């Protein structure tokens, strides 16, 4: 695992979490 791969997966997880929080706040 390279530094770029780690940063890419980390940012992907952050985006995914933000998307879930956004969708749940909109639906609720």
From TrEMBL:
**Keywords from the UniProt entry:** Membrane, Transmembrane, Transmembrane helix
Q: Which residues cross the membrane?
A: 6-27
What Pfam families does UniProt report for this protein, alphabetically? Answer: DUF3948
Q: InterPro entries, per this entry?
A: DUF3948
The protein's superkingdom reads Bacteria
Any idea what this protein is called?
Fatty acid desaturase
Species of provenance:
Bacillus cereus VD142
């Amino acid at each position: 695992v390279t530094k770029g791969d780690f940063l890419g997966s980390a940012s992907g997880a952050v985006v995914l979490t933000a998307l879930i929080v956004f969708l749940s706040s909109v639906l609720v």
